[in-house]
Structures are given as structure tokens and as C-alpha cells.
Design the sequence.
């Protein structure tokens, strides 16, 4: 008869229960304390808001997700900032006719790539001022250069497009990057079962695929979440497939929850010269941060972001955000901050504070309105 293996000594049930309870209490207290710190920072920022005594017509993209959250964020901010707001859908309403009837002081169009320019021409002929806030510069400049000359004022989220639009005859062009909506992106306290060490939310453009190919082994060794389309084109997809939500599109609520459930969120911009998805034959380079930069920071999560030329105008690297330039550097910094929790949290808190102070839709639209209407305001 074979000898039985010596049984492992088990802890008494009550001792295991007490240890589990203590561990759960420590974890719960830690999460609660962190969440309380975030709320304290949020409540400390009460920016002054003023109201412009004007009637604004806001033309939503009407393009559905992922543009609908932008429509909502801009409309919500304008509601607080102007005396009268009319919101119309740029995809299915007779915008020019409505404007001719209501005579707003300004018509602000968001995106504009699928908005029929005949409405813009008709409004300007009727003496109604028009402004455009682009959403996808510089990736579709082949299209945008044909549209922007029809507007009175252009606001672009890409610094390098200012000179381009001036060069083709636009007289009033301003740099106005995107930002975050504190109503959509803010600190949450996700269930422990949903928490991850590292996450990336976005599509697998080829520049991203190259980085993730180089980082596959490391990401496979960590508690990682990747969500988006086309990730099955990774060289070693099988090694990461259990960590990938393939083909998954997240709305702002799900995205904010995923950010908050992560210790570190990777941000990687798309390439300006991607021939498969861009319409940018002019090869305008990209210098400005994407909206995700501000949205991650608004959630008080450490962001590891690839370097963009103008990023330091918005966040101080090493203090409010962490940057990388190569896959090796990304891996090194992921590993470092996963093992230095206090530093990670301090940078995340400072990033959130900077975002709420300087980089919300209320901030941006106050800047826009001050350019469009440099006049006395109504304080509230």
C-alpha cells in the first residue's frame, strides 16, 4: 500500500477567518482612505464661472458614439456659460433655417466633418457668425482644409493645424485642445474583483501594435486589461488573449470604471502618418495631447503617456503625469510604479487636481467665449 502524502498543516477555521477579515478591513480602509483623498481634492476646486449674455446655437455632431459623449459634454458646459442655448443636431435638422429664424449671436459647430457646408454658407450669407471646433485634427486634414475656410472662426485641438489653416486663408484660427468632463470622468471605487494593475483602452492602430508586441511578455506576466478592436493582429495574441476584451467598445461610464479599477493606465496616441486610417496627405504632425490624456487624469489614476511635443504645456512630466518614448522605457516605468504605490498615488492626485483646475470643458468654453465675445460678463 502506497504511503499517503503528509497532509499540509491547516490553520484553524477561526484563525483563517480572523486573518481574512483583517486583510479585508485593511484593503477596504485603504481604498476608502484613497477615495476620500480624491474627494477632498475635488471639493477644493471651485472655479469661478461667469455667464455671457448671448444666445449660442450649438450644432452637435449627431454622429453617435464615440462622438455623442463630446456632444453631451460641450452642451452641458455651454448651458452653464451662456444666457440662452439652442442645441440642434447637425446630421438631421435644417440648421440654417433654424438659425435664420432664431438669429443666435453665434453658431458653434462641433467636428464638422459630416456637417453639410451649405448650412454654413447660408448662415454667413444671412449675417450669422459661425465657429467650428475640430475634433480629429490632424488625422483628416484632407477633408478639413476644404471645410474650414467657410467658417468665421476656427478652433482646433491640434497646435500644428493653426498655421495650416492660416496658410489657406482662415483669418481667425485658435488653438483649443480638448479636455475632460468631470461629470463623465471622476474617481470611483470599483469592486475589488474588477481591479487590474495595468489597462489600455483603445484600438490597435499599428503604432500601438508595435509597442505592445515588444511589451507582450511583461504585460502577460501582470494583471492586465486591454480593450478595443483589432488586437488579434498582435504577433503573440495567444499569449495575451485572456487579458483582451476583443472588439469591445466602452462608453464613458465603462471607460471611467476601467480607469478607476487600474493602478496604471497606458495612454498611447495614434500616429499622424498611418496610411490605413488617416486622410492626412499633407503629413501634418501631431503635437497635442488627445482627449484621453485629460480623461485618465480626471479619474486620479497614474497615467503612463507617450511623449507629445506640447504635452508639457498641460501637465508637468514626473509630477502630474509619467511619460515614455520606447517600449523598454514603458515597461521599466510600469514596473517601477507598480512597486512604488505612494509615488504613484501622489502623481495621480496632482494630475487630477491640474485637470479639474485647468482642463475641463467649462475651462475650454470660457476661453472660446472670451475670444468670440470679449465683453463684460454676468458673474454668478
Sequence:
Amino acid at each position: 500500500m502506497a504511503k499517503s502524502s503528509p497532509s499540509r498543516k491547516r490553520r484553524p477555521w477561526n484563525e483563517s477567518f480572523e486573518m481574512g477579515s483583517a486583510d479585508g478591513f485593511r484593503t477596504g480602509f485603504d481604498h476608502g482612505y484613497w477615495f476620500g483623498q480624491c474627494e477632498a481634492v475635488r471639493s477644493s476646486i471651485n472655479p469661478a464661472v461667469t455667464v455671457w449674455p448671448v444666445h449660442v446655437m450649438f450644432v452637435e455632431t449627431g454622429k453617435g458614439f464615440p462622438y455623442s459623449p463630446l456632444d453631451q459634454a460641450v452642451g452641458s458646459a455651454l448651458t452653464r456659460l451662456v444666457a440662452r442655448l439652442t442645441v440642434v443636431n447637425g446630421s438631421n435638422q435644417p440648421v440654417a433655417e433654424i438659425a435664420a429664424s432664431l438669429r443666435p449671436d453665434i453658431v458653434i459647430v462641433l467636428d464638422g466633418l459630416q456637417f453639410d457646408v451649405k448650412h454654413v454658407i447660408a448662415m454667413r450669407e444671412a449675417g450669422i457668425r459661425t465657429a467650428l471646433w475640430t475634433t480629429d485634427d490632424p488625422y483628416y486634414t484632407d477633408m478639413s482644409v476644404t471645410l474650414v475656410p467657410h467658417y468665421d472662426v476656427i478652433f482646433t485641438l491640434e497646435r500644428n493645424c493653426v498655421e495650416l489653416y492660416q496658410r489657406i486663408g482662415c483669418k481667425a484660427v485658435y488653438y483649443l485642445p480638448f479636455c475632460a468632463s468631470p461629470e463623465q470622468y471622476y474617481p470611483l471605487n470599483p469592486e475589488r474583483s474588477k481591479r487590474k494593475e495595468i489597462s489600455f483602452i483603445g484600438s490597435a492602430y499599428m503604432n500601438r501594435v508595435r509597442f505592445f508586441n515588444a511589451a507582450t511578455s511583461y504585460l502577460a506576466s501582470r494583471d492586465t486589461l486591454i480593450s478595443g478592436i483589432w488586437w488579434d493582429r498582435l504577433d503573440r495574441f495567444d499569449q495575451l488573449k485572456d487579458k483582451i476584451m476583443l472588439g469591445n467598445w466602452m462608453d464613458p461610464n465603462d471607460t471611467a470604471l476601467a480607469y478607476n479599477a487600474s493602478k496604471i493606465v497606458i495612454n498611447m496616441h495614434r500616429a499622424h502618418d498611418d496610411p490605413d486610417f488617416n486622410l492626412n496627405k499633407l503629413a501634418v504632425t501631431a503635437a497635442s495631447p488627445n482627449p484621453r490624456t485629460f480623461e485618465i487624469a480626471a479619474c486620479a489614476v497614474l497615467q503612463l503617456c507617450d511623449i507629445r511635443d506640447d504635452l508639457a504645456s498641460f501637465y508637468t512630466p514626473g509630477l502630474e503625469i509619467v511619460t515614455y518614448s520606447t517600449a523598454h522605457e514603458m515597461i521599466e516605468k510600469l514596473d517601477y510604479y507598480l512597486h512604488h504605490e505612494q509615488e504613484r498615488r501622489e502623481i495621480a492626485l496632482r494630475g487630477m487636481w491640474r485637470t479639474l483646475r485647468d482642463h475641463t470643458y467649462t475651462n475650454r468654453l470660457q476661453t472660446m467665449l472670451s475670444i468670440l465675445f470679449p465683453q463684460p460678463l454676468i458673474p454668478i
